[in-house]
Write a structure and sequence with these properties.
With about 70 residues, the protein is an all-beta fold. Helix content is about 0%, strand content about 35%.
Length: about 70
């Protein structure tokens, strides 16, 4: 896709039930169009449950916990 870092990271999120942490799997990324209207999204897989979450990338030191707080 692009040599630039993506603006958003795509995750599938599977709920595991009340009181349990959801499972977040990175499945792709999104880059803004040069004209500013919309994004190009590249996915390596698709969510089975239909839930796809796009969030901004976190700093390198936080990479292991990306998205967990948004569950």
């Amino acid at each position: 896709m692009s040599t630039q870092k993506p603006a958003l990271i795509a995750y599938t999120v599977k709920s595991r039930g009340k009181g349990q942490t959801a499972i977040w799997n990175k499945v792709g990324a999104a880059w803004p169009h040069s004209g500013g209207n919309g994004f190009s999204i590249e996915l390596e897989s698709f969510p089975v449950n239909g839930r796809l979450v796009l969030i901004e990338p976190k700093a390198e030191s936080e990479a292991g916990t990306a998205g967990e707080a948004a569950a």
